[in-house]
């Protein structure tokens, strides 16, 4: 055994649910982390220092997780924290870790649609677990799917991905249902399963709800050979709490099973049982909780320091021979790993039926950052519920405020009736009931706000990702292109895009009425619809705009919105521009700074107001000579106010463009942005800003 330095041990936090509904799943993860720490200490520690683990109980509540994380970071000064299971709890921690610039190592599979420089995600993304699992089911003739999950972020998001994949694979979603975490009553749901007769039930329940569900499923007479349950949340550990006959024959998908026959896994299982008892089992989350401590150790030693920024940088690219096989940390802070599918045996272990022949690249954003991204239907489905979430959150807050007012009145009544014991008792009972309602509604409000916060982050991130990159803009033949976008809120309703297809370029710039989350959602719908139409080889400007309007109109009706979109579409080919659609004026600057203003009022109507706008669609042609430029913008520029309430205005915009006509597109953009900021000064920005500068390249 190596000698440890006498220096002060380095502290790390272990933050898991040791009580509450998630304790059944999370307690073994704490054990796995402690085992890794013990092994590392016996081998000499980290940079010659022993590790002092400080264990805290998140109690299955996001607010408790947040409070304990602050305590570990602020008071205990831990170097890193290993922990969490549910997405709700993880999301409560992300802003805390970003505020403290510390690192969270998260060991559980999750829905994706998140990234943080302060989190390493060592569980599987949906594309590494869920998508291969559904592909396997479809290939094995499971066509009718029943989706059942706990009512929080992970199951709801994952089930949207499953729904889209099932539809693309010619399967059918017969029903989807959600129950609160900790729910133990499944009779109604099981009756629905019997009535709909699916081929398979895909289970994303979490925690001890699974014990009740599998038992009640078996007691209802449903057997695995008739309607199997396929889980992506129940591992070997949870199976130990369920009667054997209730689980045999059902399926699961994980990157790791205890039954993997490799030397590394046999050693891992043997050590775990030796430390915690022969009856204990290992699982995918247990293995991840174990190996992520070793990943942290490797990163620290590679960095030669416990300093957070150095460790974060050193972790990228690290490989580790884990019990499941070779894993690697990718630049997006997720882990490249494989997937296995197994059937549950009477031993409560999984017989491995399928192992992917390669490690799978993690795509937490569903591949939206990839040039061949095709899952636009998933994105639109994910985003379509955001406005309803906003409404629901507002309704809950309103109800909570109403009950708070009632609570105050009851307290006043109680004070006035203190002399009369019987009335006092009645008032106390009413007060208690009101308090219970307030507690329940506040819990709902916190959960919904957490979900809404996640949706805001998803929308903001997707907006950034879907903007054309500098590399894409440089690849456009014939044009120099420079773009700029800045939302007034976290999420904006402005957008622009530049797409090449079959030698032609399609340029779009749009502005959804208002700004904020709902406007941002609609702008994303436009982007995905435009890209989809272009891939379908629809090139005629009038037909393109007509189909786009009908698509957006249908989506706006679906989400019961009153918003509309002004949108200009420019088709470019060989110095010729065709402008269609109603938006702000297009400003053309020619040699010597001569300005031409193109009014788009007669080129279309705002999208989403009417189902048919074909009679209003027109095109305006522009020929660009070498050195000519065209500037497209949203009204956030011309209507930008200073502290005196004065607008920036189109005249000043034209002057700025004219005086920089002979500059490259990027410098024209910078000149406009700089002048706008100079005009605004310290005044609050009230509207989103988008700007696109196109400059015809010289033919030489």
Automatic annotation (TrEMBL):
Signal sequence range: none
Coiled coil: 417-451
Record keywords: Coiled coil
Pfam families for the chain: Peripla_BP_5, SpoIIE
Domain PPM-type phosphatase: 476-696
Transmembrane segments: none
Gene3D superfamilies: 3.40.50.2300, PPM-type phosphatase domain (3.60.40.10)
PANTHER family: ALIPHATIC AMIDASE EXPRESSION-REGULATING PROTEIN, PTHR47628
Entry protein name: Urea ABC transporter substrate-binding protein
Species, as recorded: Zarconia navalis LEGE 11467
């Amino acid at each position: 055994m190596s000698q440890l330095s006498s220096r002060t041990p380095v502290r790390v936090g272990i933050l898991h649910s040791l009580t509450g509904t998630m304790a059944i799943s999370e307690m073994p993860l704490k054990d796995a982390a402690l085992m890794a720490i013990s092994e590392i200490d016996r081998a000499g520690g980290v940079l010659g220092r022993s590790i002092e683990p400080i264990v805290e109980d998140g109690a299955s509540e996001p607010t408790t997780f947040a409070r304990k994380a602050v305590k570990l970071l602020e008071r205990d000064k831990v170097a890193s924290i290993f922990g969490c299971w549910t997405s709700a709890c993880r999301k409560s921690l992300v802003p805390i870790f970003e505020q403290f610039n510390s690192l969270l190592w998260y060991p559980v599979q999750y829905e994706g649609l998140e990234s943080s420089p302060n989190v390493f995600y060592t569980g599987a993304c949906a594309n590494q677990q869920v998508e291969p699992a559904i592909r396997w089911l479809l290939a094995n003739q499971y066509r009718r799917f029943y989706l059942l999950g706990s009512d929080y972020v992970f199951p709801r998001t994952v089930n949207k991905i499953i729904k889209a994949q099932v539809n693309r694979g010619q399967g059918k979603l017969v029903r989807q249902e959600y129950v609160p975490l900790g729910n133990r009553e499944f009779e109604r749901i099981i009756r629905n399963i019997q009535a709909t007769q699916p081929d398979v039930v895909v289970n994303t329940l979490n925690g001890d709800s699974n014990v009740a569900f599998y038992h009640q499923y078996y007691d209802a007479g449903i057997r695995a050979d008739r309607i199997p349950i396929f889980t992506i949340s129940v591992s070997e550990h949870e199976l130990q709490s369920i009667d054997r006959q209730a689980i045999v024959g059902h399926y699961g998908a994980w990157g790791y099973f205890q039954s993997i026959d490799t030397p590394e896994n046999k050693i891992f299982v043997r050590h775990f049982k030796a430390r915690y008892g022969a009856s204990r089992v290992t699982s995918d989350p247990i293995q991840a909780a174990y190996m992520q401590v070793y990943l942290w150790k490797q990163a620290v030693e590679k960095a030669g320091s416990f300093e957070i920024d150095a460790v974060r940088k050193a972790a990228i690219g690290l490989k580790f021979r884990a019990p499941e096989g070779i894993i690697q940390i990718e630049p997006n802070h997720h882990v490249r790993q494989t997937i296995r599918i197994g059937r549950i045996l009477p031993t409560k272990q999984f017989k491995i039926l399928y192992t992917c022949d390669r490690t799978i690249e993690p795509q937490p954003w569903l591949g939206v950052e990839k040039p061949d991204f095709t899952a636009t239907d998933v994105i639109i489905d994910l985003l379509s519920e955001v406005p309803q979430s906003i409404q629901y959150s507002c309704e809950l807050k309103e109800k909570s405020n109403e009950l708070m007012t009632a609570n105050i009145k009851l307290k006043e009544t109680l004070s006035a009736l203190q002399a009369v014991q019987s009335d006092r008792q009645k008032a106390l009972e009413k007060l208690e009931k009101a308090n219970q309602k307030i507690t329940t509604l506040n819990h709902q409000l916190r959960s919904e706000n957490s979900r809404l916060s996640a949706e805001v982050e998803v929308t903001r991130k997707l907006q950034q990702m879907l903007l054309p990159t500098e590399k894409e803009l440089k690849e456009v033949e014939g044009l120099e292109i420079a773009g700029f976008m800045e939302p007034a809120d976290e999420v904006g309703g402005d957008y622009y895009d530049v797409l090449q297809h079959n030698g032609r370029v399609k340029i779009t710039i749009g502005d959804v009425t208002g700004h904020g989350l709902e406007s941002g959602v609609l702008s994303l719908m436009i982007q995905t619809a435009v890209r989809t139409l272009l891939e379908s080889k629809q090139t005629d400007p009038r037909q393109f705009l007509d189909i786009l309007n009908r698509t957006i109109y249908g989506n706006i009706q679906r989400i019961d919105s009153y918003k509309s979109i002004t949108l200009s579409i420019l088709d470019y080919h060989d110095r010729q521009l065709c402008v269609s659609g109603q938006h702000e004026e297009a400003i053309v600057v020619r040699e010597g700074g001569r300005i031409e203003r193109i009014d788009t009022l007669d080129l279309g109507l705002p999208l989403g107001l009417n189902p048919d706008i074909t009679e209003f669609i027109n095109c305006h042609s522009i020929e660009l000579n070498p050195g000519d430029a065209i500037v497209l913008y949203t009204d956030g520029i011309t209507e930008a106010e200073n502290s005196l309430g004065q607008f920036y205005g189109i005249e000043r915009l034209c002057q700025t463009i004219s005086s920089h006509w002979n500059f490259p597109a990027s410098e024209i953009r910078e000149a406009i942005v700089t002048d706008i900021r100079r005009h605004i000064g310290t005044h609050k920005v009230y509207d989103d800003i988008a700007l696109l500068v196109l400059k015809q390249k010289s033919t030489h």
